[in-house]
Amino acid sequence: TYTPSIVPATPTAEPAKTVDVQGATQTGKPVFTEGDSRVPMNDTVPATFEDGSTTKTVEGVGTYTVAADGTVTFVPEKSFVGTAPAVTVVREDMNGTKASATYTPTVTPVTPTAAPTTSTDIQGATQTGKPEFTEGDSRVPMNDDVPATFDDGSTTKTVDGVGTYTVAADGTVTFVPEPSFTGTAPAVTVVREDKNGTKASATYTPSVTPITVTPTDKVS
Q1: DSSP codes, 128-169
Q2: Which parts of the chain sit beneath pLDDT 50?
């Protein structure tokens, strides 16, 4: 008699994780290993997710796409931060035996910052000031296509007895004081956002120094 015995050749897979900043596209690739060198992974059969698809969109999180070789590309929503749900990648070997592993991306927040500014000029003079806005990461700059506003969404504010503030698209504030006003005017808050839509705010405070008229005696 001749009795052959066949031992299984079971491929294995190791999960993958990646971390990058808010808004950045990430890629990760689980590692698949054949169960026997004579039964390699089948590169002619494209990798899929566990449901057989090659694209998944999670609302409020982002979109995952798996390439034929098992590489997953994750495009997060601009506002998403944290650890995204894992997706399961499936490949098979030359025997058709499948193996699966997860890919999990994590998104770290990018927070722009802003520094307040002040200005001082004489009574009746128009003043300008511009808070300094700095991106939280060089890959996520401030969004020059979205105009700056005040904290209530307006671009003009008038304070009775004080003056009028107007903010330009780049965050520069112009203050036109009332002719009679002197002293430190109320601060206004300027708001801008970065390319992810994350907002930062800082104040602008103008001060007006009085002009004193000094009479001179005249003798004739």
Answers
A1: EE--EEE-SBTTB-B-TTS--EETTS-SEEEETTTEEEEE-T
A2: none
